Amino acid sequence: MEQRTMIYRIRHLTEYRYQQPVSLCYNLAHLQPRNTPYQSCVSSKLHIDPMPSYSRKRKDYFGNNMLHFSIEVPHRKLAIEVISDIRIDEARTSPELNLDLGNTCAQALEALHDSQNRATLDAREFVLESPMVKMIPQLREYAEASFLPDRPLLSAARDLTQRIFSDFTYDPHFTTVATPLSDVLEHRRGVCQDFAHLAIGCLRALGYPARYVSGYLETLPPPGKEKLVGSDASHAWFAVYSPDEGWFEFDPTNNNMPAHQHITTAWGRDYSDVAPLRGVIFDGGKSQAPKVAVDVERLDKP
């Protein structure tokens, strides 16, 4: 039988260069991939320059790998490099899922309301509003066409994924991290983060638990061309919960269900829970955007 397990090496480099020396910085990073039912982190090495004065790894509320660190010496440059080897299991590389089976939309809502199952109870918090996914009437209006009561929930989520892909234009110059969903809906433009937030908002507006998933997407060069170093990218998609069936992931940016080319780093309510790097600096001059390079290399081909 053909071996479908994939091994990937992910290199994620983030660099900040400052106009003036930074005297002190405190940072929080979600950069080391987590284990999931479909993937396991074989190894993950993290290098920070300058060397932190303090660092501590722990699991956050959602079970993601999180690092706190501070640098307490003056510096004009900050570089964080993470190299992780990830194994993607066969079940992820060849998903066999009939989206016309399972809970209907009505059945899912009923079970979410009545079930005392621990997994379902835990999932309910993902129906609530979160910092970057505010409940506005337009979300429900956009979602309702997909989620008919007798339609299977997963089929409806797949339809929503298809509609976002068709109705919205990928435009990396239109939005920022802080762009509200109302602007994304009005102008029908955004990036993967925006499309994931949009789908999550639509689902929550109708009462279905949905969470934000951050990670990486392997990109392949055109035929006959070599892959450029740093050409891969951080990525985002969403997952919806169906009672007694579990979490199912969808990628509205690429109109598919994530498989072996999607590598998960972390998940939470929205981007604010799982931002790759955030922090506070003292001094440094005018704010500088980071330089980010990502490489996803396939080590073990089937």
UniProtKB/TrEMBL annotation:
InterPro entries: Bac_transglu_N, Papain-like_cys_pep_sf, Transglutaminase-like. SUPFAM superfamilies: Cysteine proteinases. Pfam families: Bact_transglu_N, Transglut_core. Residues 184-254 form the Transglutaminase-like domain. It comes from the Bacteria. Coiled coil: none annotated. This is Transglutaminase N-terminal domain-containing protein.
